[in-house]
Design a protein that fits this description.
This is YycH family regulatory protein. By secondary structure, this protein is an alpha+beta fold. Helix content is about 20%, strand content about 40%. A hairpin with a 2-residue loop joins strand 12 and strand 13.
């Protein structure tokens, strides 16, 4: 055989082998999806807007106190607007002061938050001349703005929850003083309502007087895709085991992490060995950084409470808290941290879309609420009483909907429950004797 013929035959063999290998590569399916085809942890996003401390730390009540009477805006949106005005008022001459045991009641505003927080956090939400961070171990769940008519100034007072420390500041602006003075002169007008004070609880709780009528809402909603959540919670989504424990319930698992998605909510846990080195960030800032990192604030979420290693944000609707209390709580974002590592993350995977139905609901009279609370043997343990929206999932032939219905709620041991009906027999004994 000539050399040229041998070369041609060898070339044909090589070309054929190359075609076979190429065809095989095209038709080969790997056991896992290529990493490049899966949205990476950095790209996964839940679609929410970033939140700062001032976005999540907001008061739940603003009460105007004058001559032993208590008033508040009827519409909580007006209270939030007033608080936004306060955030622009400049606090000067900040100093530690002695507590006044028998302070004369006068005209003052009490701004109440859902939980106690370090005084230093108010650097982030108020206009302070000097920092408040020098006051360590100083926690408050409210502050007061006192109208000082003799000096025509405003005095701001932060009293620690243990009532052992007080920090004062002044607001020297004449226009701010005049604005607040005007409000105190208008408290009997239509946009305000009178409040009643619960006297046997550890913290001051103010109940709107009379009856209130609120709107119930039915919403369509969007659901965050499970794959988006998987890609956020697992560094390498392709190496995750997937199982379906029940219809509509998906479990993702690795050696250390487990993510359960069910009933429009998620529960995540990471049991990996933890870094023992302390972190410089507070749990609030750690949590904000983490949730902002994947667009997790998909609705109006506000700080509900926190400890050294756990934190909760509650959903609000038209400035009223939303309560769900199901196994997959659809009204709370909850996290636990061990130093700088997230170990537990529970949250709703829905976001409200379009209102498809509304109705008016007349709530129980405040006197009935007061009667029920005063009959409670654990009245002193009540942490708060609020009108809130109960969130439930309703279904019809067209699909699932979110129903938000207003009701009276009480908070005991950090758990919300509907204020029960008062005991009629007991109440008759209280009112008429026996």
């Amino acid at each position: 055989m000539k050399l040229e013929t041998a070369k041609s035959l060898l070339l044909i063999i090589l070309i054929g082998t190359s075609l076979i290998l190429t065809f095989g590569m095209w038709n080969y399916r790997a056991e896992y999806e290529p990493l490049s085809d899966v949205e990476s942890i950095d790209e996964a996003d839940l679609g929410g807007e970033p939140s700062e401390v001032s976005d999540v730390l907001k008061p739940t009540d603003v009460v105007f106190k004058m001559n032993g009477q208590f008033f508040a805006y009827k519409d909580p949106a007006d209270s939030m607007e007033f608080f936004e005005d306060i955030q622009q008022w400049e606090l000067t001459d900040i100093q530690n002061s002695d507590l006044e045991e028998d302070r004369e009641p006068g005209a003052e505003v009490e701004i109440i938050f859902p939980t106690e927080v370090p005084l230093s956090l108010f650097d982030n939400i108020l206009n302070v001349e000097n920092t408040l961070t020098g006051n360590t171990n100083f926690y408050v769940d409210r502050f007061y703005i006192v109208l000082q008519e003799d000096e025509e100034t405003l005095n701001v007072r932060f009293v620690s929850n243990d009532e052992e420390q007080m920090v004062e500041a002044d607001i020297q602006s004449m226009s701010d003083y005049d604005n607040l003075l005007t409000i105190f002169g208008e408290l009997t007008e239509e946009e305000y309502e009178e409040r009643q004070l619960l006297t046997e609880t550890d913290r001051n709780i103010y109940i709107p007087s009379g009856k209130k009528t609120l709107t119930s809402y039915t919403y369509t909603f969007d659901t965050i895709p499970a794959v988006n959540v998987r890609n956020i919670m697992f560094p390498n989504p392709n190496l995750v085991n997937i199982s379906e424990s029940a219809p509509g319930s998906i479990m993702y698992r690795t050696d250390n992490r487990q993510l359960n998605i069910s009933g429009y909510g998620m529960k995540f846990i990471d049991v990996a060995e933890r870094n023992n080195d302390p972190t410089d960030n507070s749990i609030l800032q750690q949590s904000l950084n983490n949730i902002n990192g994947h667009g997790g604030f998909t609705d109006d979420y506000r700080l509900e409470g926190f400890t050294d290693d756990s934190i909760a944000f509650r959903l609000f609707h038209f400035h009223y808290p939303v309560i769900n209390n199901s196994y997959m709580d659809l009204s709370i974002i909850y996290q636990e941290w061990q130093n700088d590592q997230l170990s537990v993350y529970n949250r709703s995977l829905i976001s409200l879309e379009t209102v498809v139905n509304t109705s008016s609901i007349e709530l129980r009279d405040s006197n009935e609420i007061m009667d029920s609370i005063q009959q409670n043997e654990n009245e002193a343990d009540i942490q708060d009483v609020k009108i809130a929206y109960r969130l439930t999932i309703e279904s019809d032939d067209n699909g699932d909907y979110v129903l938000l219905e207003p009701n009276w709620y009480q908070r005991i041991n950090n758990s919300w429950s509907i204020v029960p009906e008062p005991n009629t027999d007991t109440q008759q004994t209280i009112e008429g004797g026996s």
